[in-house]
């Protein structure tokens, strides 16, 4: 914010900053540096003067493409660092000494090196995984063959022993020779394939093999104890080692195709046991060598990523800035001579000197012989809205902007929201015990401000942290209203003095006001503790809070109408003063302002008049005598006058304004071919802008219907909005009763059992119920209701909210977006 002298700086929030449209003519040799310096200031919103061109037709499309490519490389590095679990270094305060060309070369070299390392590592890892699988095949398949050979040897020994026992001299020699010859002729050489198949597909693999070869295969499988990394996918998979015995080349080709379809990895295998042992030793040696090589490669990759991580933030900032600079340069129009760029944009009036200083500095630093030309343009275009906020007022302004951004220089409700929003919340949340709990939580967020502001928080936590100063005021006002209601977790305390009431005799019961007499002065601040727990508590507090809600509501609605008067004065619009502000004030205060006056008079005089009866019969029988409901002299006459004025105010709002606007439109355009650049028509221009028919043909029917809707909305809204403020009473009552239930039915009930375990359980239930229901759900409920009262009941009296926000070109607003 700009420096202001004196103890009381001007209220910058009441109206948005004065803006003007500026034009800057920049020599092309200093254009990049000029835009860079303007981005450092962050106080000019550039207009797109090349909106008819596509992004590819613009002057600096090539540079933006370069920046996008650099951003892609940086995203690649970030992805690699996150996979390697390497954290980025904190942002260094020192400025990066790189220019875009040097950075492009460096990032290109680093990407090529990292890609090569990754490629080599992938190849080595694949080979390593294949060797691990191969070793498993050698071990498991070797076991198959060992078992098979041992069984074959045993069977051979058994057969030979049987033959020796059966041999006799009578056995013909020729028969032996013939059978031997036949057996040797029938012997067929069996082939086999070994490999691994995923465990989940092993049964289907076996069935398909059986069907494809019509049962002419022999399959053995053995499960691997631990999941292995698949060389193809790089994922851990549970697998089975298989050996398939087959006969013939045709069966072999079928088996190979099935293995390929099921993703089974095949490995060569020797029948000779000595060769198998030799191959296991060889594979183990190669696995060890590959492991050493892979570890060395990963260490080199980690060192390279650490080096990148140290400068990543600086490089990322530089690329983001350069891309935003060229994106802004693309919004400027190039001169026909192609020697200078023309920029137009909105800037606050107070920033003029800063912008001019930046232009001079850019001219000097770029060693340009010609300086940039700065000039203010006159326009009737509506400027953007800009409020200078700080970390305290920003969250309140955000609440208002969520409804709609203020029109240029209209009265800003954010100024009053700073006080009225937390106050209305506190009226519904009045308990100084709960207020202290929220205050402590909020102070924790404020003390951790520096830490949390530099971190990425979750959605809910980020929203809570952003509104920490709103919550701070909500907590302080809740403590204040809690002291007025005299409630500390629903328990009353004699904080400021003893109760004004005492028992008349010993028979006086604590649960009733019968027998209580006033023995001292009135309790000095808030509700007397004697009311709590008495038979009259609810009727008394209901009456108090209901009437208080009406008083607060009428006061806030009056404030909204008064702000519409200041808007009309500021925009020099007497039509809105005479035919909007005055009839609205008369109508609202003739009915509900009068009701508020009756409430105050009744409180001051102690009268027993029925205000419901007074207000109803003010309309139904205005001439009848009031009788015991009369609160002051000449009350009937006053009511008749107010009723008459309220009835007159309705056509006063509806009829004159459309006819006056039509007459103004006719007189303004009669005989005029040209509109002066500067004149007294600003008020008329503003009014026509309100009704969306500026310089177009005046549609009287449209204006009249608009005014009719506006009048009906105000008349009905005066009633419904006043009733809407009764939510203050309803939510305050609900909060108080819930708090009482939790205290009496949970905590006191547990205390009455005289059992430590029950007391601990009761205490835990009370804490969770208080935090979950009263401090979270009730807080959110009261917040939303206060939000509605501001957006609907207060702001619709004066707030247009149809402006657009000032969005300057600023490096500070670039953030951490990855494009």
TrEMBL record:
<protein>
    <recommendedName>
        <fullName>V-type proton ATPase subunit a</fullName>
    </recommendedName>
</protein>
<feature type="transmembrane region" description="Helical">
    <location>
        <begin position="581"/>
        <end position="601"/>
    </location>
</feature>
<keyword id="KW-1133">Transmembrane helix</keyword>
<keyword id="KW-0813">Transport</keyword>
<feature type="transmembrane region" description="Helical">
    <location>
        <begin position="423"/>
        <end position="447"/>
    </location>
</feature>
<keyword id="KW-0406">Ion transport</keyword>
<dbReference type="GO" id="GO:0051117">
    <property type="term" value="F:ATPase binding"/>
</dbReference>
<dbReference type="InterPro" id="IPR002490">
    <property type="entry name" value="V-ATPase_116kDa_su"/>
</dbReference>
<feature type="coiled-coil region">
    <location>
        <begin position="93"/>
        <end position="127"/>
    </location>
</feature>
<feature type="transmembrane region" description="Helical">
    <location>
        <begin position="468"/>
        <end position="485"/>
    </location>
</feature>
<feature type="transmembrane region" description="Helical">
    <location>
        <begin position="756"/>
        <end position="777"/>
    </location>
</feature>
<dbReference type="GO" id="GO:0046961">
    <property type="term" value="F:proton-transporting ATPase activity, rotational mechanism"/>
</dbReference>
<keyword id="KW-0472">Membrane</keyword>
<feature type="transmembrane region" description="Helical">
    <location>
        <begin position="548"/>
        <end position="569"/>
    </location>
</feature>
<dbReference type="GO" id="GO:0007035">
    <property type="term" value="P:vacuolar acidification"/>
</dbReference>
<keyword id="KW-0812">Transmembrane</keyword>
<keyword id="KW-0375">Hydrogen ion transport</keyword>
<dbReference type="InterPro" id="IPR026028">
    <property type="entry name" value="V-type_ATPase_116kDa_su_euka"/>
</dbReference>
<comment type="function">
    <text>Essential component of the vacuolar proton pump (V-ATPase), a multimeric enzyme that catalyzes the translocation of protons across the membranes. Required for assembly and activity of the V-ATPase.</text>
</comment>
<feature type="transmembrane region" description="Helical">
    <location>
        <begin position="637"/>
        <end position="655"/>
    </location>
</feature>
<keyword id="KW-0175">Coiled coil</keyword>
<dbReference type="GO" id="GO:0000220">
    <property type="term" value="C:vacuolar proton-transporting V-type ATPase, V0 domain"/>
</dbReference>
<comment type="similarity">
    <text>Belongs to the V-ATPase 116 kDa subunit family.</text>
</comment>
<dbReference type="Pfam" id="PF01496">
    <property type="entry name" value="V_ATPase_I"/>
</dbReference>
């Amino acid at each position: 914010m700009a420096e202001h002298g004196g103890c009381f700086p001007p209220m910058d929030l009441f109206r948005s900053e004065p803006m003007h449209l500026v034009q800057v003519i920049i020599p092309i040799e200093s254009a990049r540096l000029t835009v860079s310096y303007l981005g450092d200031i962050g106080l000019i919103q550039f207009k797109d003067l090349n909106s008819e061109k596509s992004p590819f037709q613009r002057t600096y499309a090539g540079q933006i493409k370069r920046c996008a490519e650099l951003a892609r490389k940086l995203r690649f590095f970030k992805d690699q660092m996150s996979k390697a679990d390497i954290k980025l270094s904190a942002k260094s305060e020192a400025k990066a000494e790189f220019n875009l060309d040097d950075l492009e070369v460096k990032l290109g070299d680093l990407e090529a090196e990292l890609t090569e390392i990754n490629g080599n590592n992938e190849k080595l890892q694949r080979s390593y995984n294949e060797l691990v699988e191969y070793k498993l095949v050698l071990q498991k398949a070797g076991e198959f063959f060992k078992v098979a050979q041992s069984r074959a040897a045993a069977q051979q020994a058994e057969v030979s022993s049987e033959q020796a026992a059966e041999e006799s001299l009578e056995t013909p020699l020729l028969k032996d020779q013939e059978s031997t010859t036949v057996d040797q002729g029938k012997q067929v050489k069996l082939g086999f394939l070994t490999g691994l198949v995923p465990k989940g597909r092993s049964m289907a693999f076996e069935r398909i093999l059986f069907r494809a070869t019509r049962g002419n295969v022999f399959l053995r499988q053995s499960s691997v104890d631990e999941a292995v990394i698949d060389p193809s996918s790089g994922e851990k998979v549970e697998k089975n080692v298989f050996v398939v015995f087959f006969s013939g080349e045709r069966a072999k080709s079928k088996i190979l195709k099935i293995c390929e379809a099921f993703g089974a990895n095949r490995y060569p295998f020797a029948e000779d046991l000595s060769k198998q042992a030799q191959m296991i030793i060889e594979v183990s040696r190669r696995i060890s060598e590959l492991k050493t090589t892979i570890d060395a490669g990963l260490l080199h990759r980690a060192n390279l990523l650490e080096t990148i991580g140290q400068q990543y933030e600086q490089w990322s900032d530089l690329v983001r800035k350069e891309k935003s600079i060229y994106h802004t340069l693309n919004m400027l129009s190039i001169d026909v001579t192609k020697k200078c760029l023309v920029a137009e944009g909105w800037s606050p009036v107070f920033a003029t000197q800063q912008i001019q200083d930046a232009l001079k500095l850019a001219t000097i630093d770029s060693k340009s012989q010609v300086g940039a030309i700065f000039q203010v343009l006159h326009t009737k275009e509506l400027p953007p809205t800009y409020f200078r906020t700080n970390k305290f007022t920003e969250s309140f302004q955000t609440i208002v902007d969520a409804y709609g951004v203020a029109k240029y220089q209209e009265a800003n409700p954010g100024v009053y929201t700073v006080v009225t929003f937390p106050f209305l919340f506190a009226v519904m949340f009045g308990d100084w015990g709960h207020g202290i709990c929220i205050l402590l939580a909020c102070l924790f967020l404020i003390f951790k401000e520096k830490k949390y502001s530099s971190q990425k928080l979750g959605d809910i936590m980020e929203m809570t942290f952003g509104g920490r100063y709103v919550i701070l005021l909500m907590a302080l006002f809740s403590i204040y209203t809690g002291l007025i209601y005299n409630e500390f977790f629903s328990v009353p305390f004699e904080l400021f003095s003893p109760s004004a009431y005492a028992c008349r005799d010993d028979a006086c019961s604590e649960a009733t006001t019968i027998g209580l007499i006033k023995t001292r002065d009135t309790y000095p601040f808030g509700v007397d503790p004697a009311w709590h727990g008495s038979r009259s508590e609810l009727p008394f507090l209901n009456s108090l809070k209901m009437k208080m809600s009406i008083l607060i509501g009428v006061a806030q609605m009056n404030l909204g109408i008064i702000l519409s008067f200041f808007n009309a004065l500021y925009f020099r619009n007497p039509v809105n003063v005479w035919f909007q502000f005055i009839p609205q004030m008369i109508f609202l205060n003739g009915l509900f302002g009068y009701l508020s006056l009756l409430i105050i008079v009744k409180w001051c005089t102690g009268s027993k008049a029925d205000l419901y009866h007074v207000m109803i019969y003010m309309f139904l029988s205005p001439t009848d005598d009031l009788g015991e409901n009369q609160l002051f002299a000449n009350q009937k006459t006053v009511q008749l006058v107010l009723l008459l004025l309220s009835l007159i105010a309705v056509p006063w709002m509806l009829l004159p304004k459309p006819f006056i606007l039509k007459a103004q439109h006719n007189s303004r355009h009669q005989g005029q071919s040209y509109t002066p650049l500067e004149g007294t028509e600003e008020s008329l221009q503003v009014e026509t802008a309100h009704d969306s028919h500026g310089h177009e043909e005046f549609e009287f029917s449209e204006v009249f219907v608009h005014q009719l809707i506006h009048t009906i909305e105000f008349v009905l809204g005066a009633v419904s909005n006043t009733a809407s403020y009764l939510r203050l009473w309803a939510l305050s009552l609900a909060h108080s009763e819930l708090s009482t239930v939790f205290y009496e039915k949970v905590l006191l009930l547990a205390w009455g059992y005289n059992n430590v375990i029950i007391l601990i359980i009761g205490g835990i239930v009370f804490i969770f119920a208080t935090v979950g229901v009263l401090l979270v759900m009730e807080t959110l409920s009261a917040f939303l209701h206060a939000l509605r009262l501001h957006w609907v009941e207060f702001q619709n009296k004066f707030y247009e909210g149809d402006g657009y926000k000032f969005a300057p070109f600023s490096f500070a607003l670039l953030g951490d977006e990855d494009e």
